[in-house]
Amino acid sequence: MVVLVLGGSRSGKSALAERLVARSGDAVTYVATADVGDEDMARRVARHRERRPERWETVEAGEDLGSELSALEGHVLVDSLGTWVARRHDFAVDVAGLRAALGARRGDTVLVSDEVGMGVHPSTEVGRRFRDALGAVNAAVADVADEVLLVVAGRALRLDRFEDAARDLLG
User: Which domain holds residue 104?
Assistant: First the structure.
């Protein structure tokens, strides 16, 4: 099963994703994507580490997330697609490779990502390019996900596929 957990900053999306992947009680590989470049990010990463069970293995994501996921067995939590995209030159990532890897995985995969399309309009050109790049990645992953959840203020909403919502609304 592939689950995408979307939300804004401090919405609770990572905590929910951790709970989802932990429910099996099996071993979990936590794929960390953040670059701990400043004190604030270091504190955030430390809080995430403190919440995780010690038995979870943590691996640092590289450039080719799809290949890295293909090499992992069992349950995986990727936190987060936003920091993975942000670390790539020109925000260029192999979305097709990621989608293929997610479709081929046998264990549950829970991915966390920022929903950046609902916030304040970025004031810079690079901010707009990041928003657009991550929005495209989120849509591509949502397309292959079995479930997509949107977390707002610590509450989760299950999001329907476009076709399902249109059918339900239009008959």
Answer: 16-54+65-170
- pLDDT reported for residue 25: 78
> Residue 76 falls within a domain, yes or no?
yes
Residue 27: the pLDDT is 87
Which CATH number do you get for residue 43? 3.40.50.300
Q: Is residue 9 part of a domain?
A: no
In a domain, 49, yes or no: yes
Q: Of 48, 75, 89, 121, which one is the catalytic site residue?
A: 48
- For position 39, what pLDDT does the model report? 84
Q: What is the pLDDT of residues 100-112, one digit of tens each?
A: 999 999 999 999 9
Provide the H-helix boundaries in the chain: 13-22, 39-51, 65-71, 81-86, 95-104, 125-144, 162-170
Q: What is the pLDDT of residue 81?
A: 98
Q: Answer yes or no: is 5 within a domain.
A: no
What is the number of other CB atoms lying within 10 angstroms of the CB of residue 105?
Answer: 18
* Residue 48 designated active-site: yes
Q: How far apart are CA 14 and CA 3, in angstroms?
A: 12
- Residues of the chain predicted below pLDDT 70: none
| Pair of tokens at residue 153 | 């203020």
Give the total number of structural domains in the chain.
1
